[in-house]
């Protein structure tokens, strides 16, 4: 079987998507990245192979993406996150015209043409104000598990505004809210709205058009999705595969490239055979 | 006569008591915590205890810092900018530029020869270049804030920290450690990065000699060294650098108290018996 793996080494999570030669998803795997990127890449490779019931060496082609894409020792090619997220998002939602990728450290907005080409791109890579890490820090200050934050914020009665733009200074603000007796639901809801405001600025800068597809790990946070939808006034495309969009895009692009390589090598072989005859 | 100054900062609250000769009689410091009013009271009580006096011995008290309006016994509020300028110029009379690095914000202040504020610049939107940046780095490195200066001094080859955002720097530090970089080189790099941010702030107000370094971070010898390296000049650093805001506030209190006393005295002599309730 011809298998292709896409590996997305992100700042918080490393994810892999395994495809067969028709582009069908066979397995998804994710692990925390930690400080040893090569090890994280290895782990998702093994996990994805185990889930699909194949051996790692049966995987014919590997495409890597994410900030650690150059640290995947077994890759054949590395592709930028921007391209991978655009391709992954359009695969999940073919009507996608704008992609909003929200990761732990960076948020990116892209406008894509009908052809899939990226027309405009904006990224917040200097400051964590519109990134998932902002939510992580607030969750930590509130002593709430990250995976509960989204659901919890939906129960807010009286959202508390967070005025700090800086993720670090927001922590002190959150602590002040807590000591003032504010409900954690309300603080979380305010946090989501604050982040939503920051990333919507990015979305507007690329000249967003519907449909808007949300990708990256933060897409799992239903509270943030709600805040974005409230502020944008439209529904967003979100699926359970949104967090895998980068790895999926890498795998799809890897598959294309691998097929092209093989075609060209077979044509070369054919030509050799013809000339030999 | 005694006068008091209370500086309610984001991280710590400081109190200072001065006597009629502007001599420092007591300095106290407590964690601000969530209850700002309590923190102001605790710091003030501690200073009273250290000086061995009672609250009614203090003729006038000035509150400063971000919590200055929540000092219940404050007779007057003065901005921390004016108080730092006042305190710094009192301790180092030739001061023309002040860098105040606190827990959550950093300020650059330019003053004239009369200790009047001519210009100031502040970074309070972002933790980059503030004490919080240092605290975050210390946490990632598993070090105490107090150890940072000593550890930085052991570095022979400081690392270049490329990120500005405190959150991103945490990640950058982890990557450096994973690659086997020495902790002291990382710490020294962090100090130089913050120094770079502060120097930019100082240049915006115009750098004039002498420069006095105030605030809690001024106690960190590593930070002093990093700033001096970046500026290529010496900095004035007082042992009571953390209390300079409170001392400045107490000096404003001294002026008010002295003024009131002078008025009372002149009133008493010019119109005997008419003073009554006083000023």
Word description of this protein:
- The complex is a heterodimer of chains A (277) and B (279).
- Chain A is an alpha/beta fold.
- Chain A has helices at residues 37-52, 81-92, 132-142, 149-153, 167-179, 184-205, 222-232, 245-276, and strands at 3-9, 13-19, 25-32, 59-65, 77-78, 98-102, 107-112, 118-124, 212-215.
- In chain A, the strands form two sheets. Chain A has a five-stranded mixed beta sheet with strand order 3-2-1-4-5.
- In chain A, helix 2 crosses helix 8, helix 3 packs parallel to helix 5 and helix 3 (132-142) packs antiparallel against helix 6.
- Chain A is elongated and about 85 Å long.
- Chain B has 279 residues and is an alpha/beta fold.
- Chain B is 43% helix and 20% strand.
- In chain B, helix 3 runs parallel beside helix 5.
- Residues 272-279 of chain B have low confidence and may be disordered.
- The A-B interface holds A 11, 35-36, 105, 126-128, 131, 133-134, 137, 164-169, 172, 175-176, 179 and B 10, 34-35, 104, 125-127, 132-133, 136, 163-168, 171, 174-175, 177-178.
Order the strands across the largest sheet of chain B as they lie in space: 3-2-1-4-5
Q: Tell me, briefly, the overall form of chain B.
A: elongated
Residues in helices of chain B, as a percent range? 40-55%
The total beta strand count of chain B reads: 10
Set out the fold topology.
The complex is a heterodimer of chains A (277) and B (279).
Chain A: E1 3-9, E2 13-19, E3 25-32, H1 37-52, E4 59-65, E5 77-78, H2 81-92, E6 98-102, E7 107-112, E8 118-124, H3 132-142, H4 149-153, H5 167-179, H6 184-205, E9 212-215, H7 222-232, H8 245-276
Helix pairs in contact in A: 2-8, 3-5, 3-6, 6-7
Chain B: E1 2-8, E2 12-19, E3 24-31, H1 36-51, E4 58-64, E5 76-77, H2 80-91, E6 97-101, E7 106-111, E8 117-123, H3 131-141, H4 148-153, H5 166-178, H6 183-205, E9 211-214, H7 221-231, E10 235-236, H8 244-270
Parallel strand pairs in B: 1-4, 4-5, 6-9, 9-10
Antiparallel strand pairs in B: 1-2, 2-3, 6-7, 7-8
Helix pairs in contact in B: 2-8, 3-5, 3-6, 6-7
